[in-house]
Amino acid sequence: MRRVSLRRPRLPRTRRGQRRLVQAVMAGCVLALLPATWMYTVAGDRLRTTADVPRTDVAVVFGAGLWEGEPSPYLAHRLDAAAKLYREGRVEVVLVTGDNSREDYDEPDAMRGYLTRHGVPDGRIVSDYAGFDTWDSCVRAKKIFGVDQAVLISQGFHIRRAVALCEAAGVASYGVGVDAVHDATWYYGGTREIFAAGKAALDAVFRPDPRFLGPREPGVERALASAGGPLP
Predict the structure, then answer these.
(1) How many H helices and E strands in the chain?
(2) Distances (CA, A) of 206 to 97, 191, 196, 200, 231
(3) Residues in domain DUF218 (predicted)?
(4) In the 8-state DSSP scheme, what is residue 123?
């Protein structure tokens, strides 16, 4: 059998060619970092903790996976923060948004069950069953559920992207990044954000419709009415 040899790419030999190569590499690095820079700029002064986040009518909790039908540890930390904000009177309604694309996988209902077990009344929880990604969740919060302002709750590696996308979708947002163990999932999430930043920037520029939009839903409005109206 004839062996195929791979030729290594040749580097430019002239000083001018080398300079152009360096410039091209630098330009590529700058372009790659632009989306992340945009996210950090938009979310820079919008990040808070559960102790100092402004009182807001609605908290939005993004799905983060299920383990045997129950919220994963990462999702449970997000829901704990939402329950804490509700118990302290900082939010009136919790919008849980996640994936229910098949019958045997239902993030929003699992999130609802967890919140009710931790002190949030069922009537103060609203479910978005078509939050397939962060952009879809933000757009649907605005267009389907009529949310104009919200506290967003996620892990630290994701919260800046969530704030930037919700702001682009028309939801004035503060972000609460909850603590997380720096395990393999955390490192995977942080690495994933580097690549997700590019898609986020494209979503913010081109503003595509979510995978599923559907009719307007009055769930948030009704939940606020049952709470006695918006927070002062």
Answers:
(1) 7, 8
(2) 22, 24, 15, 10, 33
(3) 57-173
(4) G
DSSP string, 44-55: TT-EE-TTTPPP
Contacts (Cβ under 8 Å, ≥6 apart) of 132: 99, 101, 210, 211, 212
Is the CB of residue 78 less than 8 Å from the CB of residue 153? yes
Residue pair 135/141 in contact by the 8 Å Cβ criterion: no
pLDDT tens-digit readout, 34-73 = 677 788 888 889 999 999 999 999 999 999 999 999 999 9
- C-alpha–C-alpha distance, residues 47 and 61, integer Å: 15
Q: In the 8-state DSSP scheme, what is residue 232?
A: -
Query: CA-CA distances (angstroms) from residue 221 to 12, 62, 157?
Result: 64, 20, 31
- From the CB of residue 38, how many other CB atoms can be counted at a distance below 10 Å? 18
pLDDT higher than threshold 50 for residue 28: no
CA distances to 70, 75, 96 from 113, rounded to whole Å, are 9, 13, 11
